[in-house]
Amino acid sequence: MHPEEMFMTRATLRDVAAYAGVSHQTVSNVLNDHPSIRPTTRQRVMDAIRALDYHPNVAAKALRESRVTTLCCAFYGHSADEVADPYRNLVQSAFISEANAHGYNITTALLGGDRPGGFEGLRAAYMQRAFGGAVVVSTTLPPGRMRELAAWGLPTVLFDHEDPQGQLPSVTTDYAGGMAGLVAHLVSRGRRDLALVIPSDDFGSSAVLRREGFLAAARAHGVRSRIEAGAWSYEAGEAAFRRLWAGEDRPDAVLCGNDRMGAGALSAARALGVRVPEEVAVSGFDDFEFARYTAPSLTTIHVPHEAMARLAVRRLLSLLSGTAPPDEPPGCQLPVTLVPRESA
Amino acid sequence: MHPEEMFMTRATLRDVAAYAGVSHQTVSNVLNDHPSIRPTTRQRVMDAIRALDYHPNVAAKALRESRVTTLCCAFYGHSADEVADPYRNLVQSAFISEANAHGYNITTALLGGDRPGGFEGLRAAYMQRAFGGAVVVSTTLPPGRMRELAAWGLPTVLFDHEDPQGQLPSVTTDYAGGMAGLVAHLVSRGRRDLALVIPSDDFGSSAVLRREGFLAAARAHGVRSRIEAGAWSYEAGEAAFRRLWAGEDRPDAVLCGNDRMGAGALSAARALGVRVPEEVAVSGFDDFEFARYTAPSLTTIHVPHEAMARLAVRRLLSLLSGTAPPDEPPGCQLPVTLVPRESA
DNA sequence: CTGAAAGCGCTAACAC
DNA sequence: GTGTTAGCGCTTTCAG
Fold first, then answer.
1. Contact yes or no for A136/A158 (Cβ under 8 A)
2. What is the pTM of this model?
3. For A291-327, what is each residue's pLDDT tens digit?
4. CA-CA distance, A228 to A243, in Å (whole number)?
5. Euclidean distance between the first and the last CA atom of chain B, given in angstroms as a whole number
6. CATH match of A62-171+307-332 with 1.10.10.10
7. How far is B43 from chain A (nearest CA, A)?
């Protein structure tokens, strides 16, 4: 049989065995690095594998071993803006390369809102053994959903938010510390009256930590602080800035909960003829690509999305293999970096 | 056996059969909508499926049917900017929902550059039957790579670029028409001296079509046109604008090959104290989110990424099922929309 | 219309 | 060290 013929229909383990003149089990042993395979046999088998362009069938492997080599990257959040969040790319890109490095594939799912087959679809795919575990990416997840994930027995790592119950492992970043660094930076530049634009009703740990970090830091520095409600979007940032500027006592720094709101605040300032940073400092949070493009460029906090993503994959893998140290705390926080630009 | 017990270890088809008091084959027939199953039997089986929370094992199905229900969404392009391209999210999001609607999952791969396991990894995953076909997303793909994909027998649909050989099916958008619309818009606003910033050495059909569409439209309108080299990035847009402005005869409109370069051009104009659009019009191409956030906001061409993505999935599916009409042309082009904003 | 048999490609358990 | 047997969960024959 000529090697080329094998390309018609993919070679199987038995084809390799026949070609190498050994039993199919020997081939399997070679592939799984079983000890005590004679080097010459091993070489013969490897040659046959190469000659026949053999690739193991993942479905057969998964069926036999009842474990799959696919991980799910699940993004929660339904708004068009959220779907388009550039940070999702970075996260997913890091997921993919980290997972691939461990021999896993990544399947991506979209959760939340009215999207058909959101959480139910995730569960169905898991029950069908389409993937072995998931990283759920979101700044906020309803507690009921977290309990569901835990109840389903779905191996899960939360990304960018924590489980208040401490059941699900999570990878987050130091939001509070980021806010503290920002406040310190602003105070050192002479700012004394700080306003933070952030949703006031968001239960997600991401919002809560930013809020509390801000308030605590302002208190520690002895400067005035206040919260202005705003819902993560560009438009919300614009509106919040206008409200703050319409008031009697205007702040000398407007901190925004994310870059998108920061861009909105800059736009409102420009429209109102307010000079940034001379009259008021403006900052964001996330360090999206467009933070470099605004006028003036946006001072912000860089979130280490790539490192977080790689860590999340590793934590998920150790969860799946059961090698997670039992004393490991569920939460895990990576540091952020202040990125001073023109706006503050 | 109590239903709850089944949750420990997932229920199989035989469990369902035992619970419903039929043979396992009958359950399979019910699931596959085989004709001539008695309604009462069918109902009993459905009840058992629900009671046991049965979900078919995709690996077993794939093994038996030798076809998988996973499609690969492969992004080509290595630069950090490309990875962060917001349009990738939209494309992927549409892929996922369209594929899910047809009962398929999506796995995502990153190709290109020095990324370990790029094209070789894609082929390996395909050979392992990790997915059945792929959509390759990129504005440009080396012809050699296209020939590889075709040679491997990998069912492929190209997204956002065409196969010059016409072998691989593709879904693109009307780049030339978009440029023509933009030129018409600018001419109607009194512009007579147009410069297009775009790579001059990019062989990708996306760049070629934008370039040629621009030149043809300018010729048709009888206005002056020129090409200024620039390599898709923000910084390239900035530099190109500065070069154009440093010259003797400045254009009255600077068209940029994408929004990122448009944002760079706006920044350069601002830095040079050039008023946009009074002194010069600036435009982009793509309609990224940040085109709304620049100052002034960026006039651009909206590319129907979502519709293209859905179409690409459907074309891939018909390719896989062999139901593609044989006379269907390989290329397929969707229309673009002009989005006039402040900058032009 | 329903049941029994065979096998997709692979690996874990035993013989040899 | 190597080969044989059995079976993961499913669907496609083919008998009843």
1. yes
2. 0.89
3. 998 989 999 999 999 999 999 999 999 999 888 776 7
4. 9
5. 72
6. no
7. 21
For residue A226, the SS3 value is strand
Fold (CATH) for A3-56: 434 Repressor (Amino-terminal Domain) (1.10.260)
- B117: chain A residues, CB-CB within 8 Å: 100
Which whole-number Å values give the CA distances from B125 to B72, B86, B91, B297, in the listed order? 10, 26, 22, 43
> pLDDT tens digits for A128-148?
999 999 999 998 888 889 999
Q: Which nucleotides of C are covered by protein (CB under 7 A)?
A: 1-5, 7-13
Residue-wise pLDDT tens digits, A20-48 = 999 898 999 999 888 778 888 899 999 99
In strand D, which positions have an atom below 7 A from any protein CB? 1-5, 7-13
Name the token pair of A282: 């403006």
Please state, in angstroms and rounded to a whole number, the distance separating the CA atoms of residues A225 and A174.
20
B231: DSSP letter:
-
Domain B175-302: assigned CATH number: 3.40.50.2300
In chain B, where the domains are located: 3-56, 62-171+307-332, 175-302
Residues of chain B with pLDDT under 70: 1-8, 113-117, 326
User: At CB < 8 A and 24+ separation, what contacts does A213-218 make?
Assistant: A213/A175, A213/A176, A213/A177, A213/A178, A213/A179, A213/A180, A214/A179, A214/A182, A214/A183, A214/A255, A216/A176, A216/A180, A217/A179, A217/A180, A217/A182, A217/A183, A217/A184, A218/A183, A218/A194
Is-same-fold flag (B62-171+307-332; B175-302)? yes
User: What's residue A115's pLDDT?
Assistant: 61
Alpha-carbon distances of A196 from A50, A117, A248, B110, rounded to whole Å: 61, 36, 17, 38
What are the beta bridge partners of residue B337? B302
CB-CB contact of A98 with A313 (8 Å): yes
Strand D neighbours with CB under 7 A? A 22-26, 29, 36-38, 41, 60, 63-64, 66; B 10, 12-14, 24-25, 28, 31-32, 56-57, 60-61, 63-65
Minimal Cα–Cα distance from B225 to chain A, Å?
27
Q: Which segments within A144-223 are labelled E, that is strand?
A: 156-159, 170-173, 193-197
CA distance B304 to chain A (A): 14
> Within 13 Å and on the Cβ side, how many CA atoms surround B81?
13
For residue A7, name the pLDDT band (cuts at 50, 70, 90).
very low
Sole residue written with tokens 């796995």: B107
Inter-chain CB proximity B267 and A293 less than 8 Å: yes
Residue A131 is predicted with a pLDDT of 97
Give the pLDDT confidence of A98-136 residue by residue, as tens digits: 999 999 999 999 997 656 568 999 999 999 999 999 999
